C-alpha cells in the first residue's frame, strides 16, 4: 500500500514539474474559483423562495434556491410555470421576476410595463 502511495506521489510531483509557471498559475486560479463556488453553494443552502412562503425550517434548509450557474434548484419553484412566458424547470421564476417584464425609468421613478406579445 505504501509503495502505491509513494508511486502516486512521485507521479504527481513529476506532473507538476512538467508544466510551465503560466500553466501552474492558471491551474491555481481555477482551483481557487472552484473553492469559492463550493463555499458559496454551501452558504446558500437555504431556499429564500420557500422561506418567504412560510415553509418550515427543515424544508427550506433542505435545498438552495439556485446553483452557482443560476439554475433553479427549489423543487417547488422548478414545478412552477410562469404565466407570462411559460418558463419552468432550470429557468423557472415567478411573474415578478419574469424577464419579459420591462422596467422603464421616468425621471427618478421606475415603472413596470408589461409588453404585449
From TrEMBL:
It comes from the Eukaryota. It is found in: Cytoplasm. Residues 46-100 form the Nanos-type domain. One of its GO terms (cellular component) is cytoplasm. Keywords: Cytoplasm, Metal-binding, RNA-binding, Translation regulation, Zinc, Zinc-finger. GO terms for molecular function: RNA binding; zinc ion binding. GO terms for biological process: regulation of translation. Belongs to the nanos family. This is (diamondback moth) hypothetical protein. The lineage of its organism: Eukaryota, Metazoa, Ecdysozoa, Arthropoda, Hexapoda.
